[in-house]
Design a protein that fits this description.
The chain has 187 residues and is mainly alpha-helical. 74% of the residues lie in helices and 6% in strands. A hairpin with a 2-residue loop joins strand 1 and strand 2.
């Protein structure tokens, strides 16, 4: 095949050039119309995409508000019930707390009374023990006297001790005015 560009211009008939030019003009017009149509479609798609975005944002914002409202409506009865339960439990705890404090006060008072009574009884027994110790000491101090009385020839006469003095016995006292009693005879 031969190349059309290789042909001389005089060899192409003027009607063919005219037809080619008309064809070319129609193609340019068709291309311009197609480009305009494509641009219109692109512009329309952009507008629709923008409108879609705006609608989507409005839907999301509305959905967020609606979800929050639905959540509040769903949670509010539960929260109210929880609040009532917490209030009732709090009231019971306060009541139990008062009861515990009353019990602690009663126990403390009882303990103080027991300690007071124990202190009083202990004081009483201390005094009694002290008196008993003093009496025991007097008895222990009297033991040598009783032993000496029992070993001596002595009797009680009219509330005093009468002895059968030993003339050869030992003298006692600062002036030697006392004499030892005779030893008691064996019965």
């Amino acid at each position: 095949m031969e190349d059309i560009n290789a042909m001389p211009a005089a060899a192409i008939p003027p009607e063919a050039i005219k037809a080619l030019m008309t064809l070319r003009a129609e193609m340019v017009q068709r291309e311009a119309r197609m480009s305009a149509t494509i641009n219109e479609h692109v512009q329309s798609l952009r507008q629709e995409a923008g409108q879609f975005r705006r609608d989507l944002v409005a839907i999301v914002e509305g959905a967020g508000t609606r979800i929050a409202q639905d959540a509040r409506e769903a949670v509010s009865p539960v929260a109210a019930e929880y609040g009532h339960a917490v209030s009732a439990t709090s009231a019971q705890l306060r009541s139990v707390g008062r009861t515990v404090w009353l019990w602690l006060a009663a126990i403390g008072t009882t303990l103080l009374l027991v300690l007071l009574v124990a202190w009083t009884v202990l004081g009483y027994y201390r005094r009694e023990l002290s008196a008993t110790k003093e009496e025991l000491q007097r008895y222990e101090d009297a033991v040598p006297v009783v032993q000496a009385f029992y070993a001596s020839d002595a009797v009680i006469c009219g509330g005093v001790i009468c002895t059968h003095a030993d003339p050869g016995g030992m003298r006692a006292g600062d002036k030697g005015q006392y004499r030892a009693a005779r030893p008691r005879g064996t019965p």
